[in-house]
Amino acid sequence: MRRWFGLGILLAAVAAAGCAGGPGGEGAPPSGPRPAPSAGALRLNGAGATFPYPLYSRWFDTYSREHGIQVNYQSIGSGGGIQQLKNRTVDFGASDAPLSDEEQKEMPAPVIHIPTVAGAVVLAYNVPDAPKGLRMSPEVVAGIFLGQIKKWNDPQITALNPDVSLPDTAVVVAHRSDGSGTTYIFTHYLSAVSPDWQTKVGAGKSVSWPVGLGGKGNEGVTGVVKQTPGGIGYVELAYAIQNNLNYAQVRNAAGQFVEPSVVSTTAAAAGSAAALKRDVRASIANAAGAEAYPISGFTYILVYRDQPDLERGKALADLLDWAIRDGQKFAPDLHYAPLPAAVVKINEAALRQLNYQGQPLLATAP
Amino acid sequence: MKQTTAVGSPRLRSRRRHDVGDALFLRVTQAFALAMVAVVLLALGVTARSAWPAVRAFGLGFLTGSTWDPVADKFGAWPFVWGTLYSSFLALLLAVPVGVAGAIFLSELSPRWLSGPVSFLVELLAAIPSVVYGLWGLLVMVPWLRDRVQAPLNGALGNWPLFSGAPYGVSMMAAALVLAIMILPIITAVARDVLRAVPREQREAALALGSTRWETIWRAVLPFGRVGVLGAVILALGRALGETMAVTMVIGNRPEASISLLNPAYTMASVLANEYAEATGRLHVAALSGVALTLFVITFIVNGLARWLVWRVAHRAGGSR
Lengths: 366, 321
Fold this sequence. Notes:
The complex is a heterodimer of chains A (366) and B (321).
Chain A: H1 2-21, E1 43-48, H2 53-67, E2 70-74, H3 78-86, E3 92-95, H4 101-106, E4 111-126, E5 135-136, H5 138-146, H6 155-160, E6 172-176, H7 181-193, H8 195-200, E7 213-215, H9 217-227, E8 231-236, H10 237-242, E9 249-251, E10 257-258, H11 262-271, H12 273-278, E11 296-304, H13 310-324, H14 341-352, E12 355-356, E13 359-360
Parallel strand pairs in A: 1-2, 1-3, 5-9, 6-7, 6-8
Antiparallel strand pairs in A: 3-11, 4-8, 4-11, 9-10, 12-13
Helix pairs in contact in A: 13-14
Chain B: H1 9-58, H2 61-64, E1 68-69, E2 74-75, H3 78-109, H4 112-127, H5 130-157, H6 172-196, H7 200-208, H8 213-242, H9 245-251, H10 268-275, H11 282-320
Helix pairs in contact in B: 1-11, 3-6, 3-8, 3-10, 4-6, 5-6, 5-9, 6-8, 6-9, 7-8, 8-11, 10-11
């Protein structure tokens, strides 16, 4: 009797495994996001970037309490987010980099970019006896990461910091080894300020670094910087603040030395408003404005312009509208820079394009 | 398959029921066994398919090329292949003598009250998650290595290719050391069990012939267990080839193939862990799949070679006995 019982369980397991593997495997035709289990509890799904995850999880938690709509966000990386959006297994994707023209062509339908929040990338260093807030010019930053500036007492650095006596220590460069939005922002900045960098290396989430050691994640870069006298690396602002790292002031396009902060990052976004109006995917690196911190960038949510479902589309439009307005107040606490008014306006115009069979989804202006 | 047939109808009936059960059991186990094969083939197939654009674009140059530039869409995987093979080789070089010596001590020489706790601690080493090894390596071992080992080595022997470069700390040397520590418990634990399983008669005979302890172990115990010890080494090699997290954190992630122990390097598993999540370019994803496929194939080859080696050794051991 017992034996048969065991066999039964085994068979049930086989049957279950068979069913699970059956329909809906790879290559099954995408038919829009799965409908919600019941009309009452609408659940939106998103996936993508890890950089904004702390903020997004705060947003979606608050939103579900206030508006009763559950949002399930998986921080699996931008690549995975874009892939899932392409397969239409999520309602929105999140990416630290906008889609390139080519990537946009590969999507099955037109995609709208919504910058949700801005972030700054700081240069953290470990120079014996050097104070906080060393001054750096774009030429110095590019020179260091191109491997042309090799010592901390290089005349190019000392000229900017006349009051500081810098040691004859070798510069040890640390960079991110994992593909990341942080690298994307930083290499875009370097490409914007250094023609040499643009031709030799270029910009992207992973690049071929001329010099330096690769660390995995902010913690890996910080590890190398902290452990190595003479180390310098780039990390997210939030990470640098939380870990009490020394970071540099960088000279911006207006010639001012600016300390990275939530405020100076928002200023950079505001300074790029004109370019963003033409194309919201434009880089805000080396932005205009006396207050702007030059190494800044956005993180984006990507949605299809033509939504396949009226109710879900409406919920999605409402969610994003809330995020770019009410959601912004949660950003500074988590060291993300809130959007300036000009960018909120650009986003609003973009959200108005969201439609279901030609019918706009965003509720009329408040 | 020789069976005596049962006589008498009640027993016959029960046998028939048995037959149905047996047949079912056979089918179910068979299905599971085949499913495992199918999973391997499917994984290979899917990886190969997604790697196809890179294979078509670069051909064999993908394996021999040394440029890895996601911005310019130029991909050559040689530095990663080299890094994986070199770091695993160095780790084995360090861990095999220590591990086997430890196993000999635990199974042959150690007093009983000591071998229990030591075995337990060695096995505990295997239970530590690899990210912990990585963090320990980065925060504790690397600075020590840089100041106490690499700087003096580089100063004294800097013009030897093996110790050229600059003493950064994070390096091939750091990766090999962390890997060696990680595979040590596998070698020790498996080899100890193998040596313990050597029949007592083997030792007694050697001792009876007047062998010293050393001779007993070297001539009578180790040869008997060498297939098993080799198996332990292969298990360890498998772990070393595939280890990702700990290596990524201390190897410096620089795609350059170099013989120097001080230079930063990169492994196949590391580049996958690093770049896959955020890779969006079509060719970039394909190239990463190509690296995965290469790792797959290399693991296959290494395992095949290892099996062949075990077979050879077992064969010869059988012949000489």
